[in-house]
């Protein structure tokens, strides 16, 4: 963020506040962020309901979240990184089989949902085993929009959110 651009800073603050209010209204936990092209025709991305079940393995974990696009242009999630893991891969589940993919579309006026039994993130080569109550910081990178930073809370290994994830 450019400190010399108060209009942009105000707009980003307003988006962050709106995202926090939306999270409070849905009862989910997670973090929000926003990025994308300016104007109503670009992608307008935010993240809700992020969480990682406490891993049972010392070197691998799963992660779930929802990316919402309120904009009129689709975008594409191309990578996820974190200082907590050596690698984060994206997977989809087809017919019960997990398959690694290089990207996921985030549709215009739609959502990309990562949930147990469906699309998910795999954290591999964990640098330490996350415990319930910890927070993992992720960076989501997109084909068109700027990156989003997400604070992903670690929940109990048996956590099953009531928000439909």
Q: Report on the biggest sheet.
A: 10 strands, mixed
User: How many helices does DSSP assign?
Assistant: 1
Radius of gyration over C-alpha positions, nearest whole angstrom: 16 Å
Measured as a percent range, the helix fraction is 10-25%
- What is the beta-strand fraction? 35-45%
Please identify the structural class as seen in this structure. mainly beta
Whole-number average pLDDT? Answer: 80
Key descriptive features of the protein:
single chain; 165 residues; mainly beta; ten-stranded mixed β-sheet; 1 helix; 10 strands; 13% helix
Give an overview in words:
The protein has 165 residues and is mainly beta. The chain is 13% helix and 44% strand. The protein is built from one helix and ten strands, in the order αββββββββββ. It has one helix spanning 6-26; strands spanning 45-53, 60-69, 75-81, 85-94, 97-101, 104-106, 110-114, 120-126, 135-142, 148-155. Strands 1, 2, 3, 4, 5, 6, 7, 8, 9 and 10 form a ten-stranded mixed beta sheet that branches. The longest helix is centred in the N-terminal third of the chain and has 21 residues, at 6-26. The radius of gyration is 16 Å and the shape is globular. Residues 5-40 have low confidence and may be disordered.
